[in-house]
Amino acid sequence: MKAVIIVKTLLGMAPNCKKVTSFLAEYVEGTLPEKVAKQFEQHIGMCKCCGPYFDQYRATINLIKEGQEVKIPDELVEHTMTFLRNNANFSR
Amino acid sequence: MIEKAKSPIEESIVEPDLDALLAGDEKAFELLVNQESPRLFRIVFRIVGDEEEAKNILQETFLQAFQRIQTFRRESKFTTWLYAIGINLARGSLRKSKRMTSLDDSDVERLQPSFSKGMFVESPESWDPLRLAEQSDRHELLHRAIDNLPEDYKAIVILRDIEEHSTEEVAKMLDISGGAVRVRLHRARVALRAMLNPHFQYQRQTAE
Ligand SMILES: [Zn+2]
Which of A:28-47 have CB within 8 Å of B? Predict the structure, then answer.
């Protein structure tokens, strides 16, 4: 087991996939320390699992951000203000 | 009018006149309602998914803000405090009206990848960029997936990824720690990825 870890480290595969996927959010956010980000990128570049997983994580975020637009009702402000004038004892 | 999600920084912000609001000044409230309604409506609508309900929640939010303004501690931005009221009302309404059974925390857990000795148990397969590009209903797919998330996860995805509020603001709005916001946002994205996965994988050639 130890040998596997050493070989992986030499190949730049450390840290392992579990660790790497736990860093995804921080990596995307740009808050990983530089050294860890480097290791992360090395791993992502080599790993058959984390590579596609990272792409999909990013694609998901992009899809979320594209999102659906919300139509703001035209009378929204008046709808609230009428309600407030009736219920909110303004003092002035 | 169609409003695209904008980050708070992009919108020109006039700081609300707190003294006038505290004095119960109608003009100050009107200014506040004018300025904050579109952004607050987008958040509330995305949570409850119903225009009429969202409009009513906005009324109630501003009324509660008026009634409770003396309890505002200047520890957060005023708008953060205001949004917290609206988000709470929206979540309460969602809980009451929950039509379909949504996922719970254990479902979200199940949608996280499993590892053995630090390696993926099931290796993720690549997505087909063509399917990703061509799937015209991909936003609808995603919308339904977000709708299915437990409501705290859903609120965090809406506030962080769609409306792009900062982790710290969202933490204050939801009254949880910044760490909890970060963890749940990540878990929500992972769960969404898992829900989208079957739709975007390369389609296998069926042997015939
Ligand atoms: Zn890996």
Answer: none
